[in-house]
Write a structure and sequence with these properties.
single chain
Length: 140
């Protein structure tokens, strides 16, 4: 098993732009873990969600989060990236709209189908990575 380089980690994250497992810390001190959609811009990970959710309440209390993407079905092809970082909540309408348009672009939506207004009751979580823990069992 070998770790991934930063470039390999970015390529892996970009190849799986569907679900990431996000862990925040609840008020009771226990981890709160949910699968949620994501995309990457630069080093940062962006996650769209509704306002008022438990994950946002947890981030408001403690911005330290962990996120996990993995693939594989046997010990020979397991690959993954765990990202530990600091989360911020984005609700400012113009920044939210910019990110929504980036998400549509990355999904391959035609430009005439990109959002033109921010979605009410929605937010983005930005994770600024502090540490990557990666593995690739196919790299021996």
């Amino acid at each position: 098993m070998q770790p991934l380089t930063k470039e390999e980690t970015h390529a892996f994250l970009d190849s799986r732009p569907s679900w990431i497992i996000l862990t925040t810390i609840g008020r009771d001190g226990f981890p709160h873990t949910v699968p949620i959609g994501y995309f990457r811009l630069g080093d940062d990970i962006y996650i769209g969600c509704r306002t008022g959710t438990q994950k946002l309440k947890n981030i408001e209390r403690s911005p330290n989060v962990s996120a996990l993407v993995e693939s594989g079905s046997s010990m020979q092809d397991i690959k993954g990236a765990m990202i530990q970082g600091t989360a911020t909540i984005i609700t400012e309408p113009q920044e939210f709209l910019r990110l929504s348009r980036e998400a549509a672009r990355l999904r391959g939506a035609p430009e005439d189908q990109w959002p033109t207004e921010p979605r009410p009751g929605a937010a983005y979580i930005r994770i600024q990575p502090k540490k990557y823990i990666t593995w690739d069992y196919a790299k021996q």
